[in-house]
Design brief:
This protein is mostly helical and 371 residues long. The protein contains 15 helices and 5 strands. The strands form 2 sheets. Strands 1-2-3 form a 3-stranded parallel beta sheet. It has a two-stranded parallel sheet with strand order 4-5. Strand 1, helix 3 and strand 2 form a beta-alpha-beta unit. Helix 4 crosses helix 14 and helix 11 packs antiparallel against helix 14. The protein binds adenosine-5'-triphosphate and magnesium ion. Adenosine-5'-triphosphate (ATP) binds next to strand 1 and helix 3.
Length: 371
């Protein structure tokens, strides 16, 4: 497979907001709009890497935060790599419970939403030794204080199930840099929590090129691509997350969905309005219904008006169930054939290993460690 660096330098020049390394969410969104334009013009120059931890089934936060974008980009002709980050499960727990089952469930979710294994590569990073070997030189390129001040890692530590914080928790963003850079991806569709990690990946790429590139770029500096729902909230009003017991999964039944939405946190104001800053829970529900309906959250809010939270929840439930019905049907169908899921993974792992071997060979040559 071709491992040439796809360049996005003119994307950087065109972005009025400046380089991604110094951006917050709103600036990253502005840059995403610029990137969308470039993708439309020439999808062939982009390569995407994104992924998920095999810690449970995928949920609506994943769907509208990143999954929808992955399939859309695939359909536009962008090359897509999807990593199932099995080592990353161990960042905030001692044991990776039911790993095989979770891995298969992720493959099932991917197939159900439309990731096509004939065109896209689905793999587990644990099965790609050369990818993991990139972690060592990459670790040497970042400082302990840089790792220490990562806000996403801090948030995850506060929600962690472990009494002591592991070294992997602090260093997994560097592992993620290896996930992205092993295939020289230049575009990473992610949720808001991933922006600090993307910034670190860009730093690693830049420092590697500066230190070992002898004037040429071994790695691209990848861009984050944010969707219009970079942080969907769960039923408790915090980030919807597999590990926080607050998620509505793609695989949930219509009845489960109704029950979960009914229990979602709202506020005491009866009139329904869209205001993410002052009414985050109500606004996140409105956004969810709006995304399912293909309308704006303000329009959905205007429809509900003074009918209150119960009416809002009814609209959300109906919209989600209608939107997910075909995905859920496909998921049930693919679930009949577990051997196929394993075959998809095994083929993806093989493809990823070939790409990683080629990149590692290049890295070793650049570092002068070919013996
Ligand atoms: P865990 O609780 O195990 O960390 P998670 O729900 O946070 O699970 P990840 O596997 O860590 O999911 O994240 C995978 C991808 O989905 C990342 O790109 C992340 O930004 C995105 N994502 C996860 N949750 C949300 C959310 N609530 N809103 C938008 N994007 C999200
Ligand atoms: Mg997470």
């Amino acid at each position: 497979m071709n491992t040439a660096v796809p360049q996005t330098e003119d994307a950087g020049a065109a972005a009025s907001a400046g380089p991604t390394d110094t951006l917050g969410t709103s600036a990253a969104q502005a840059r995403s709009a610029v990137l969308e334009e470039l993708i439309r013009k020439d999808p062939g120059r982009f390569r995407v890497l994104t992924g998920d931890r095999p810690t449970g089934r995928l949920h609506l936060g994943h769907f509208f935060g990143t999954l929808h974008n992955r399939v859309r980009l695939q359909e536009l002709g962008v090359e897509l790599f999807v990593v199932i980050a099995d080592y990353q499960v161990l960042t905030d727990r001692d044991v990776a419970d039911n790993l095989l089952q979770h891995v298969e469930e992720l493959v099932l979710d991917y197939l159900a939403i439309g990731v096509d294994p004939a065109r896209s590569t689905i793999f587990t990073h644990g099965a790609v030794p050369a990818l993991n070997q990139l972690m060592l030189p990459f670790l040497s390129l970042v400082s302990v204080s840089e790792l220490n001040r990562n806000p996403t890692v801090k948030d995850e530590i506060s929600h962690s199930r472990q009494s002591a914080v592991s070294g992997l928790m602090f260093t997994y963003p560097v592992h993620q840099a290896a996930d992205i850079l092993f295939c020289k991806a230049n575009l990473v569709p992610v949720g808001q929590d991933q922006l600090p990690h993307l910034e670190l990946t860009r730093t690693v790429a830049r420092r590697f090129n500066d230190r070992y590139g002898a004037g040429s770029a071994v790695f691209p500096q990848p861009d984050a691509l944010l969707s219009s729902a970079p942080l969907l909230l769960g039923t408790d009003g915090t980030k919807m997350s597999k590990s926080r017991n607050n998620a509505i999964t793609l695989a949930a039944t219509a009845d489960e969905t109704a029950r979960l939405v009914k229990g979602a946190k709202t506020d005491s104001e009866r009139h329904i309005s869209y205001d993410p800053a002052t009414r985050p829970e109500v606004s996140s529900l409105l956004l969810l219904a709006a995304l399912c309906q293909g309308r704006s959250p303000e329009q959905v809010a205007a429809d509900i008006g003074s009918a209150g939270a119960a009416a809002l929840k009814k609209v959300v439930t109906e919209s989600v169930n209608e939107y997910l019905a075909p995905i859920r049907a496909r998921r049930a169908e693919y679930g009949q054939d577990r051997a196929h899921l394993r075959a998809v993974l095994s083929e993806g792992n093989e493809r990823a290993r070939a790409v990683a071997d080629a990149t590692l060979a290049e890295v070793r040559a650049a570092m002068n460690t070919c013996y």
